Amino acid sequence: MGDSILTIDKVSKRFGETVAVNNLAIALDKGELFGFIGPNGAGKTTTIKLIMGLLRPDSGAIIIDGHNVVESPRDAKRLIGYIPDNPYIYDRLTAREFLELVGSLYGMDRKLVNKRIEWLFDLFGIDEWGDGFAAEYSHGMRQKVILASAIMHEPKLVVIDEPMVGLDPQSQRLVKGVLKKLTERGITVLMSTHTLNVAEELCTKIAIIHKGNLMKLGTLAQLKTDAQMEGRSLEELFVKLTGGEREIKLWDE
Fold first, then answer.
1. S-S: 81 plus which of 41, 85, 150, 188, CB 3.0-4.6 Å?
2. Pick the CATH number of 6-88+162-242 from 3.40.50.300, 3.40.630.30, 1.10.510.10, 3.30.1490.100
């Protein structure tokens, strides 16, 4: 695991009697687009908060390009771009002002910040509304601004939680294209999603987590072979591994 951009080394996290993450061990290599999937309550969001330093592990370690998230939080966080599932922007800031703030927090040169903002405005189509207050933005507009803010400092690792929520088909296509381009540039992407067709389309490797435990890890082809489900969809594989199939009955049956 030593050469990995992100190493989750036997990490556990409990909340009272509940084990949210149990001895999780995963390593992500440079330029990998890694899918992190599981049912609601599986431990995905807890794991992401541990990676971001928002929670501390009870045991184990999280290393980002050689920096321990707990021991060297500033060094680790400088290397990360984070897109949460609920994109928050200060309502009284414009997209331009928000990106300027993010650039200053990362210690970026002002000229470089301005250059990156113009590039990001053009890439995501923000220039049409980016000088209006964020209070007027739709969820999809906020999502674009947060994604822009996460990549403007050229991170080594992008952590993205439910990237397609609230986006129209055109914007979804754009985001998928951006994620692919990031990995082509050697940036590692960890994507947590319930949109399994997106994971199936984009991810070079997939981890399936259930009740805090890692169920399967590998390429999609490897996962299907191991489960003897060649030719089946990721959704069918996911349901089989997590026991999510339920009989559906309505009130008159």
1. 150
2. 3.40.50.300
